[in-house]
């Protein structure tokens, strides 16, 4: 059975206030030091929480706010409207950083932040299809305006071997073969089109893991990564981001799972080994227990950062 790409018929909701709580906010500000002023980039602006704090830190901060999710960009525009022309909004993936920066900012950026996690707004929006907790179409596209292939399309067309590879490699799921086989069996009855269908199927197929962690969590992560080519996007970001910094510029990234963090750790370590950068957080920083209690979605996050060496004349 071949399921062709199509847009799901879901109700259009107005873009409302953000529910996203920025993680490691104080630590990000401490690392990036926006009080220095100059060009800053929030490569994943999301709900605008980190950007707002950067702009509030100094009147000389000029910010490029980037996001591939048009709804996130709309929310951040509303939140950051009071800063006027100090903010430029760009609808693009963070991998396009070099191409979307204004000419006067290239190589002169004082600080860059990238938060690789899925925002609370995306998780709480059923029609986006990211959440196990809310029934919605199996979509998972960050940019539904330009991306053609949804998670439902992938599940309908992939072979059992391909599914097993995705779940194992991108979800680090130990029951990947069993789940892939169950999906193939389910396809004989009909396509998987809803998040609840997939979550229920996995829950019936594998034993429950840690308390409070749904057994479908790793599979949802894997599908999201494949749909959005997230690891390729991260690799492309690290190829260009360090070059955009000025002689004392800082690059900070927030990761949320081991696949992201390994890539970030390796990329930043390579920059440090070149002798051109120093590592500001050799072990990275994780949220305090207090932050994790207030914002449980922050629990797996880690902040890493480097600085270009050369002084600030």
> Would you list the SSEs in sequence order as H and E?
HEHEHEHEHHHHHHHEHEHE
Binned, the helix content reads 25-40%
Largest sheet: 7 strands, mixed
Mean pLDDT: 91
Any idea what the shape is? globular
> Architecture of the largest domain, CATH level 2?
3-Layer(aba) Sandwich
Looking at CATH, the homologous superfamily of the largest domain is: Vaccinia Virus protein VP39
Instruction: Please compute the radius of gyration using only Cα atoms.
Output: 20 Å
The CATH topology of the largest domain turns out to be Rossmann fold
The order of strands across the largest sheet is 3-2-1-4-5-7-6
Number of helices: 13
Poorly predicted spans: 1-14
Task: Describe this protein's structure.
It is built from 13 helices and seven strands. It is α/β, with parallel strands linked by helices and 313 residues long. The chain folds into two domains: 25-121 and 231-308, 3-Layer(aba) Sandwich (Rossmann fold); 123-229, DNA polymerase, domain 1 (Orthogonal Bundle), CATH 1.10.150.170. Strands 3-2-1-4-5-7-6 form a seven-stranded mixed beta sheet, with helices on both faces. Strand 2 (61-67), helix 3 and strand 3 form a beta-alpha-beta unit. Helix 8 (176-187) crosses helix 9 (195-205). It starts with 24 loop residues before the first helix and ends in a 5-residue tail after the last strand.
Keywords:
313 residues, alpha/beta, Rossmann fold, DNA polymerase, domain 1, 2 domains, seven-stranded mixed sheet, 13 helices, 7 strands, globular, disordered N terminus
